[in-house]
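thought: user wants a sequence for this fold. calling inverse folding tool.
action: design(structure=
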């Protein structure tokens, strides 16, 4: 069931989204060669808890950390680890959400660790811009397929692929709400976007094949061919005045 929020609920939800965006920025500040993904997760958790909020992912479905930290060929759901030391040239996707006063925010960003290769940078840029294209299509009266089509068209024109097995989602009082927001699809198809819907748009883009595997830990999701992947996400409200990005740091 698609949940439409009142303007008042959306303005309350902005707080959770701002905390989520700030937490993501905190993570980015710590992405440097030599740090472990565990240490970054600790900084994220400390920041969220200091705001009186709760890390949305901690314990969600049994997930053991506050942030998903996915390095290089890991697409999403990487588990922070004391064993995993970041090195120069890694691309590091951090996905983090915060729950505050009844609502969740959810966002992700792929950070460069030191200097990355030109090809990695191009993948990151294309993925980040594909999120912007998806957001631009998140207009009241459009359909979910318009978002997916905008992302897919941009990504595939650059020779990359869009993950099929994982998609964006509604977000609000629950971390995952209806509808699903695929990063692929046909324009004009799917659930109609209504003012008051709040959705997480999150393109997951691969250098090679879009096929992914989930490792034995039941979380870590890697590209089938071992090539790089990037992931960017914003929580967005559908409003009569157009899409409003809610996960804004400040
Ligand atoms: Mg999400």
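)
observation: tool returned 250 residues.
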């Amino acid at each position: 069931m698609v949940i439409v929020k009142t303007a008042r609920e959306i303005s309350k939800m902005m707080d959770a989204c701002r905390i989520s965006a700030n937490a993501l920025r905190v993570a980015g500040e710590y992405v440097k060669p030599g740090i472990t993904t565990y240490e970054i997760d600790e900084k994220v958790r400390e920041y969220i808890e200091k705001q009186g909020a709760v890390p949305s992912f901690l314990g969600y479905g049994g997930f053991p950390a506050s942030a998903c930290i996915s390095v290089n060929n890991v697409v999403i759901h990487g588990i922070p680890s004391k064993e995993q030391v970041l090195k120069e040239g890694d691309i590091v996707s951090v996905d983090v959400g915060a729950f505050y006063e009844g609502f969740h925010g959810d966002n992700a960003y792929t950070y460069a660790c030191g200097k990355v290769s030109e090809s990695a940078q191009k993948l990151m840029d294309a993925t980040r811009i594909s999120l912007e294209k998806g957001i631009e299509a998140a207009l009241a009266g459009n359909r979910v397929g318009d978002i997916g089509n905008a992302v897919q068209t941009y990504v595939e024109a650059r020779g990359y692929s869009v993950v099929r097995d994982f998609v964006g989602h509604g977000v609000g009082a629950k971390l995952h709400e209806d509808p699903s927001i695929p990063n692929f699809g046909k324009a004009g198809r799917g659930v109609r976007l209504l003012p008051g819907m709040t959705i997480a748009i999150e393109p997951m883009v691969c250098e090679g094949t879009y096929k992914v595997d989930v490792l034995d830990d039941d979380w870590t999701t890697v590209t089938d061919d071992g090539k790089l992947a990037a992931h960017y996400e914003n929580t967005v409200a559908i409003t009569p005045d157009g899409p409003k990005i809610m996960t804004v740091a400040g």
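thought: summarizing for user.
answer: Here is the designed sequence. Residues 106, 169, 200, 202, 233 surround magnesium ion (CB under 6 Å).
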